Amino acid sequence: MKKKWWHDKVAYQIYPKSFLDTNGDGIGDLRGIISKLDYLKELGIDIIWLSPIYKSPFVDQGYDISDYYSIAEEFGTMEEFDELIAEAKKRDMYIVMDLVVNHCSDQHEWFQKALADPDGEYADYFYFKKGKDGREPSNYRSYFGGNVWEKVPGTDKYYLHMFAKEQPDLNWENPKVRQEIYDMVNWWLAKGLGGFRIDAIINIKKDVNLPTCEPDGPDGLANGVKMVEAAQGIGGLLEELKHETFEKWDAFTVAEVFNMREDELKEFIGEDGHFSTMFDFSAHELTWGGHGWYDSKPIVFKEWREVLFASQKKLQNVGFAANILENHDEPRGASRYLPKYAQNEAGKKMLATTSILLRGIPFIYQGQEIGMTNCRRNDISEYDDISTLDQYQVALDAGCSKEEALRCCYENSRDNARTPMHWSDAKNAGFSEGTPWISLNPNYAEINVAEQEKREDSVLSYYKKLIALRKNPKYCETFTYGNFAPAYEMYEDILAYDRISEETGERIRVVANYGQSAVALDLEEMKDNCEVLLSNVEKEGEAAREIKEKGLLTLKSCETAVIRL
Questions:
Q1: Which of 19, 33, 405, 522 has the smallest count of CB within 10 Å of its CB?
Q2: What is the pLDDT of residue 1?
Q3: For residue 461, what pLDDT is reported?
Q4: Percentages (nearest 5) of helix, strand, coil residues in the chain
C-alpha cells in the first residue's frame, strides 16, 4: 500500500455552533476553537474537521450554504479562519472543512437568479422540471419528509430538493456547475486547508429521467433513495472532482457515503480511489427501522460485533475506513452502544478502546472524549433539529403517543450530539456567558472537562493514554497498517480482535467484556511472552501476573485490556 500522510492520524470533529462561545452570543465561534487547539493537541488530535462555517440561513444548521466563499458572521471572520489554519499548522495539525455540494441554500445567488428567470442559464444550475397534470413531476419523498419537488412561484415548474425545500439540489450534469464547484474547492485548498469531509456525495448523480416510483407509504410517495440508487455514472463525476481538485494538493478527503454498490468499494477508497477514506456506518445502519425512528431497533451486542468484524475484514483488503461512534447526525455512542449497566466510566473507556484501535482512521466527536450522553427533553418544542421535528410527527402519524414519540427522539435525535460542549460545571458548562442557542444537557455538572482533567482515572485521561498508545512509535505500524483478525468469537459478550503487522509479525490483542459477568480468557500459548499495554481499570501489572502464572486473563464486566503478544 502506498503510504499517505493521513494514515496514522487521529481526527476530531468540531460542531462549531456548540464548541465554545467567546463573545457571549450563545453560539460557538472560531475564536473559541483557536483557544482550544492546545487542548486538542494534548488529547492527541492531528486532523480537525469543522462542520459547516460558511454563510448560511441555518435552516439545516449550515448545511444550506448561501455563499461558499464567506464565513458566517455568527462564527467570526475570514481573518480568524486564516489564523486558525496558521495556529493549527504551528502545532502540526490540519483543518478539514465540510464540503456540501449536492445542494446549496435557496438564498444562494445562483438560485435567486434561477427564480428570477426560470427559463434562463441559472435554472439549469438546478433541476427545474415541468409538473404533470397539475402536480409534481414525480413522487419522491425527501430525507426530511414530504415531496422532493417544490413549486417555482408563478410558473408550471418545480425544483428538486432531496433535503429541505430551502436546499435546492445542484445539477451536476451541467459542466458550468461542476467548474464553479472545482474553482471553489481549489480556492479553499490554496488557503492551506488539509482537506474536506464530503457531505451526502452519492446524491449528486440522479436518474436524469426522474421517473415516478411505486409508493412505499400512505403519503403516496417513494423514498428518494430509490432514484439515487438507480442512477448510473457516479464514478465518473467523482473521478473528475478528484482530478480537478483534491489530487493536485494531496488533500485528505473523507466521504459520507450511503447506498454505495458493494462492488464499488475499491473505486471509492482503494489505493487510487475517489476519496482517502469514508465513514463506516455499518453499525449505525443496524438501528434503522422500516418506517422511521419510531420503529428503529436497539443495538444487539452480537449483531453489532458481527457487522463490525465483517466490515473490518472487508475493508482491510481495500483501503482505510473512518471509524466513528458518533457524529453531529447521530446520537451519543455511550447511549447507543453501551447497555444500561455499562453506561459508566469503565464502559465508556471500554467502548473507546474497541473503537480507536480498529484498523482505519479514528474520528472522535466533540465531547466523546469525556463521555457525553444523550439529552432527555420534556417536549418537542425543546428540539431544534429539522429531522427530529419531522420524525416526531411521523411517529405521531403512525399512532405513537407523545411520550413514545419523545422517547424515539431521545434515542435518535441529531440534537443529542449538538448540545453545547461541557467545559466545566460553571454557568452554561463554561460554553457561553450568554444564552446558549440550544439548552444544555443537565448532566454537565457531573460530566465535564475541568473535572476530568484533575483525575488520572477519568474518561478524558484514558482517551489521552489510548491515543498515545495508538501513536506510540513502537506500535504505530501495527495499529496503522496491521491486519484485523477476530478473537474469542465463541464468547457471547466478548469483543476481541488482534492487530497483526505483516511487516514485523507483531500481534496486539484487544479484549473487552461487554457482559455483566466476569469471563476468564485463555492466553496459555502466550503466557511466557506477552505484555499488557493498557487496561481501563489500571491493573496492567496485575493482569500480566495472572497471564504469566495461570495462562488466563479474567475480565470483569466493562473491563478491557490491550496485550502485546
A1: 522
A2: 77
A3: 98
A4: 35, 15, 45
Beta strands 494-500; 483-487: pairing state: antiparallel
Q: Is 199 in the active site?
A: yes
Report residues of the chain scoring pLDDT below 70. none
C-alpha cell belonging to residue 359: 484498523
**Which pLDDT score, from 0 to 100, does residue 416 have?**
97
pLDDT for residue 528? 83
Backbone angles phi, psi at 535, to 5 degrees: -140, 145
| Contact assessment for residue 37 and residue 87, using Cβ atoms and an 8 Å cutoff | yes
What is the pLDDT, as a whole number, of residue 290?
80
The pLDDT value given to residue 225: 87
Count the Cβ atoms, other than its own, within 10 Å of residue 149: 23
What are residue 76's phi and psi, to 5 degrees?
140, -145
66-69 contacts at long range (C-beta below 8 A, 24 or more positions apart): 66/104, 66/105, 66/107, 66/108, 67/108, 67/109, 68/104, 68/184, 69/184, 69/187
Is the separation of the CB atoms in 525 and 495 below 8 Å?
no
Q: Are 357 and 561 in contact (CB under 8 A)?
A: no
- Any residues with CB less than 8 A from the CB of 487 and at least 6 apart, and which? 496, 497, 498, 509, 511
Check if the beta carbon of residue 332 is closer than 8 Å to that of residue 252.
no
Cα 132 vs. chain centroid, distance in angstroms? 39
**φ and ψ at 222, to 5 degrees?**
-120, 145
**Is 262 annotated as catalytic?**
no
DSSP category for residue 170: B
Tell me which of 256, 369, 385, 546 is the catalytic residue.
256
3-class DSSP assignment, residue 388: helix
Provide the strand spans (E) within 262-341: 277-279, 321-323
